[in-house]
From TrEMBL, chain A:
The reaction(s) this protein catalyses: 2 pyruvate + H(+) = (2S)-2-acetolactate + CO2
Pathway annotation: Amino-acid biosynthesis; L-valine biosynthesis; L-valine from pyruvate: step 1/4; Amino-acid biosynthesis; L-isoleucine biosynthesis; L-isoleucine from 2-oxobutanoate: step 1/4
GO molecular function ontology, one term from the record: acetolactate synthase regulator activity
Protein name: Acetolactate synthase small subunit
Keywords: Amino-acid biosynthesis, Branched-chain amino acid biosynthesis, Transferase
Subunit structure: Dimer of large and small chains.
Amino acid sequence: MKKVVQLLTNNESSALSRILGVLSKRQCHVESLSVTSDVFNPDFSNVTLVTDLKREEEASLLIKQLDKLIDVVEVKDLTIKGGVARELALVKVASPSDIRSEVISLAEPFRASIINVSRDALTFQLTGKSEKIDAFIELVKPYGIKEVSRTGAVAFIRNDQEDSSAKECSLALN
Amino acid sequence: MRNDDKTVMRVRTGADLLIESILASGTDTIFGYPGGAVLPIYDALYGGKLKHVLTRHEQGAVHAAEGFARVSGKPGVVIVTSGPGATNVVTGLMDAMMDSLPLVVFTGQVASGFIGTDAFQEADVLGITAPTTKHSFQIKRASDIPRIVKEAFHIATTGRPGPVVVDIPKDLAGQVVEQVPDEEMNLPGYRVKDDLDIDLLQVKRLGEALSASERPVILAGAGVVHAKASELLLEVAEKFNVPVVNTLLGLGSFPADHPLFLGMGGMHGTYAANVAITECDLLVNFGARFDDRLTGNLAKFAPNAKVAHVDIDPSELGKNVKTDIPVEGDAKAVLNSLLMGSYPSPDTEDWRKLTAKNKMAYPLQYKIEDNQILPQQMVEWLHDYTKGEAIVVTDVGQHQMWAAQYYSFTKPNRFVTSGGLGTMGFGFPAAIGAQIAEPEKKVVAVLGDGGFQMTLQELAVVKERNLPLKVVILNNEVLGMVRQWQEAFYEERYSESLIPVQPDFVKLAESYGIKGVRVESEQEARQVLAETMTNNEPIVIDCRVKKLENVYPMVAPGKGLNEMLGVKA
């Protein structure tokens, strides 16, 4: 099952390799990983990590092992705590002039914006849940996808009350 | 700068700061081996207060530091050079990681400007040691050295202890330092709970479960030894009338001669211990990590028991065995809290009768043979001639199990062994470290002939420091545990496990200026032990033992703990 994990870490390159070490030691697959410097404290980084676990029990173990790392200041399992996750993707679709308007019309419901136009291709930028991006890619596949670049999910907790209520929020990240 | 009488004045450098910081941590002895990248550090050591033990290989230094840490409870400190110096300590780091030993290892590194250029003797130490340490640092500014050394010792020795590496580029060690800020530690991602900060709700559940149990067993591991909680464990076991099983690393945390003691559990555990774990209705684990060598087949492990697990490391709770009562906390504090609480003692008389009967009816056993020494006998004699009071350090393999089974440890911190990683070559240098930590105590290294040959170059340290260390080689001329498995599971195809060509261990010892003696009969063994175990001289005893002896009982891989081989019929 998919797990979205948010970490606050020391802003050291070794921090990232330790985090990935915990995952690779447990043979956990990393679906996506995003790292940025923390806005509030330049000594920290924000990491969002999406992994796919075979069993639910592995999740708490993984969280505890990540938390044990001295470079990890804070770690949260957003799939339990009720997070919000979004992703950005750039998708270059083959669009010769005869089908160009058709491709554009497909992109509209996804609120994908066109950021580059060339003679035979359009580049779309879209944001949203990872599933939405998957769906868009599936939809335009028959037209010929030339290139895709995705950020992977970035996420945090939806509201501030996560500590007061330990109740499990919906597992799907909305 | 030179003064008038032409002595060279040294200015204060990063290396000086390092030595000052190590001394400030309370360390007086370090183990190490010099080299190019640590020349500034060794220069700062020269003629100073810090006692440096020069081993003959970096692996020897790190294992000696482990032995030192294990018996003293203080961190073992190591300095090695960059590249091969650093990679040679990796096995010891992993060993200390698995067995929760506090180490602080300083590795030299090439100069800052050369890092990443595949410079001479460069290795990516942070990368290599990340999975084998509790944490590792690389010095970026010489003025950070005091703070980082403070942090390294703090991390190594608090919470669940472990090894910490500090990588020091050569230029920073040599850099002149003018002003050193007195900085506090800055470890936002490391929170150490107060020892007394335990989960009281779970302790209450544990107390109630103990009161309600009919067939309880305590499993005591190294966590009890680390927490210095042996006396409290005894009180709790006696108050609640609970039989006690030890893990390998927990030996000594409960007196082996106590009626409630059932012996070591696991792959080569006693019948009484393994059956008790299998049949109990409450299993209380204090400070053990449910290693596979202890549990056997997990599906058959303690099938009828409610499981309580007390561990200072929350990531151990529920890792291998599903836990009904997880108690995060220091073993000492939890035991104390159990004694303070008003939990009635359960009536376990029938259960204790059964466990005592098993202990009587199915003791550890071997078949005495004429004209040859059995390794088990030698360990028993060793126990007798040291009055059971020696610090016994082992290597890994059959002799390790025989030492664990037959020495009967009655006090903690008297058994030093490589448990989790099972590192051959560990025993001899670890014994040197133990002897250096406890110069007045009797330290005996019980080794196999295979493992001793991995690190025997450290005989030079025994001679150099005139350590009264006793080395007993249980010499069967085979890699015994490998051979035993080949006998049991590979139709006696002894692939590369027979090692008939060996050094003459007596002459070898003598070549280092140490007395060596070979014993081949009970009479010779007793005579040599009587002579040597009471004096203050080092000795190497090459004890020739039966070649094809096996360690029993044995739980084969994949089997449950109660499915033991080699139990009295």
